[in-house]
Amino acid sequence: MIPKLHYISKGSSPKEHLENIQNACNSGAELVQLRLKINSEKKLLKFAHEAREITAHFQTRLVINDHYKIAKEVKADGVHLGITDTCPIIARRHLYTWQIIGGTANTLQECETLLDKGVDYISLAPFRISTTKDNLTPVLDLTGYAAITDVLQTETPILGAGGITTKDVTALLETGISGIAVSEAITRDFNTIRTFHELLKASTIAEQRYTFE
Known about the structure:
It is built from nine helices and eight strands. By secondary structure, the chain is α/β, with parallel strands linked by helices. The chain has one domain (5-212): Aldolase class I (TIM Barrel). An eight-stranded parallel β-barrel has the order 1-2-3-4-5-6-7-8, surrounded by five helices. Helix 1 runs parallel beside helix 2. The longest helix is centred in the C-terminal third of the chain and has 21 residues, at 192-212.
């Protein structure tokens, strides 16, 4: 089962990324994505090993952004592939059978393509303009999410991402997505992890109550 809240690492240096991952784990994060953009794969492998040590201590899941070979090397829980990254089918051939693959999408067609390629979850983004990424694709907002999830009707988890705060959660879940990926809001205040969890759990309880009735 894919956790409903993903923390995407953020920092001005690799050390800061690792410190923020530790803070997130210490605050109750269930899944962390190491999103470290450096050119040296050797250095990235080193930091990925360190991230794996931190997350293993807290029994937190670790996903590596982009680099599926490094995800396999450090035995991370999976890899997250961007729109221009490796094809999920190719990554799947190299990964362990238990490792998950997530993919980023911005349109209905991109979602359908990822589903055809067997991803375990889709990060549908961006919800709003975010400072985490450059060259952003068009903002989706609530209307965009609802339009896509209405057509998809999939059991594969769809996560909202891109500038999401605690104030957005309830309305976002009403569009049909199943969870969220957050970077900025959590990095600013790791205590928000508890609030995000409470909001996401409240939605789950409401769904269960509706189903049983």
